[in-house]
Write a structure and sequence with these properties.
This protein is of the alpha/beta class. It has a single domain, classed as TIM Barrel, CATH 3.20.20. It contains ten helices and 16 strands. It has helices at 3-8, 26-29, 65-81, 102-110, 131-141, 161-176, 192-203, 228-236, 243-247, 360-363, and strands at 20-25, 33-39, 86-92, 118-125, 146-152, 180-187, 208-213, 278-282, 287-290, 308-309, 315-318, 324-326, 337-338, 342-343, 350-351, 367-368. The strands form two sheets. Strands 7-6-5-4-3-2-11-12-13-14 form a ten-stranded mixed beta sheet. A six-stranded antiparallel beta sheet has the order 9-8-1-16-10-15. α3 (65-81) packs parallel to α4. 42% of the residues are buried.
């Protein structure tokens, strides 16, 4: 069995979640990486029945492009003051590709790549733009060390085999141009079998699919209604694979020059493939791995109140419609500021005061249950 297949059979249900004392995405644990999750506006051309009411708008509420570019520069200035010079910008919405300055933002980021140790870009999109738009996008994405897409599959709009295949074809085109691709499939309890069949349609074409539990309108918990057999598939179904590496026809990304964070504990296990994105460590110092933080909610592993968290120190989010800059999506403490009037990052990690951390973007931020150093089995 090759290494990729071996790790794809990893049983996530055997992770001792009650005994986990530290967790984080490995790229954040062992690299000088600062992350930005940016909702560029709430405008979306889709109207999905299950969408959170505050997550979309019919109004094009985009901030001016020049303000966005100045915000990029200020984020980098403060992050560099904290010792970070690797950056990951995740752009979402609404539907981010409708921001009139979207490609200008990518170019602005690309122009500074040579001055960073690493820069990656990520986009969460409904893939409604035509293939010509994506042909332009992959050209703008070439200067970056890594580019990735989370494609949100909304079957109320992508509602035929022809539309589903068009959706897949655009993603495969991106894979061929070395863009990492994952489909985000919200598994609605009442539609679970239909959603599973749709996920298989893409998985069998070599496209990773994230099976995401549906959250309630407050985004504070997973909805009821999942059968035991449904939960088993949410626990372990469709593990992430290195599909893009096997499909890409263009190879030309610059090589990164990562630095080790000053507060790192232990060492990364290089034998574990990077598509096992999340590392969890128990109280005995044993390491466990998960392919994606989206599975946390299926295991109800989302209460980090009292843990020491890097949110606001090694990353931030920008929300609309008010332009607030926050530690994370889930955090209930005061914002760090606003992109219109200014903001200030934390100088050190801070204690979490929020009971539920449902957003996967928040769950994978490095955090420790105890202030003291946990046992280290890496030496």
């Amino acid at each position: 069995m090759n290494d990729d297949l071996k790790w794809s059979n990893y049983d996530f249900s055997k992770i001792p979640f009650d005994d986990i004392v530290s967790v984080g995405q490995r790229t954040l644990l062992y690299r000088d990486l600062f992350t930005v999750s940016w909702l560029l506006g709430r405008f979306c051309n889709y109207k999905c029945s299950y969408c959170w009411p505050y997550a979309r708008s019919d109004r094009k509420d985009h901030r001016p492009t020049e303000l966005c570019l100045r915000t990029v520069d200020e984020i980098k200035r403060q992050a560099r003051d904290n010792g970070f010079n690797s950056f990951h910008f995740s752009l979402s919405g609404g539907e981010p590709t409708f921001h009139p300055g979207y490609l200008d933002i990518l170019k602005h980021l690309a122009d500074d790549v040579e001055n960073t140790n690493y820069t990656s870009i990520h986009m969460t999109t409904n893939m409604s733009r035509n293939l010509k738009w994506f042909e332009t996008y992959v050209e703008y994405a070439k200067p970056f060390h890594r580019a990735s897409i989370t494609a949100s599959l909304h079957t109320e709009h992508v509602n035929s085999k022809e539309k589903m295949q068009d959706f897949a074809d655009k993603l495969i085109f991106c894979q061929e141009h070395d863009v990492q691709v994952t489909i985000n499939q919200v598994m609605v309890p009442d539609w679970f079998e239909r959603d599973w069949e749709n996920a298989l349609f893409f998985h069998e074409q070599g496209i990773n699919v994230t099976l995401k539990p549906q959250s309630d309108p407050t985004a504070s918990r997973v909805v009821d209604g999942y059968k035991p057999e449904d939960l088993k598939r949410l626990y372990n179904g469709m593990p992430q694979r290195a599909y893009t590496e096997s499909k890409r026809k263009w190879v030309g990304r610059p090589k990164p020059n990562f630095q080790i964070p000053k507060d790192v504990i232990g060492k990364n296990d290089g034998s574990v493939p990077w598509h096992m994105q999340v590392e969890l460590k128990d109280s005995k110092g044993n390491k466990h791995y998960m392919d994606q933080a989206e599975r946390f909610n299926a295991f109800n592993f989302n209460n980090f109140e009292g843990w020491r968290c890097n949110a606001g120190y090694s990353g931030l989010i920008i929300r609309e419609p008010d332009g607030s800059v926050k530690r994370s999506y889930s955090c209930h403490d005061a914002p760090l500021g606003n992109i219109e009037t200014g903001f200030e990052l934390f100088k050190t990690p801070k204690t979490c005061i929020t009971k539920s951390c449902v957003s996967s973007a928040d769950s994978k931020i490095p955090k420790r249950k105890y202030e003291e150093v946990i046992p280290n089995t890496d030496q």
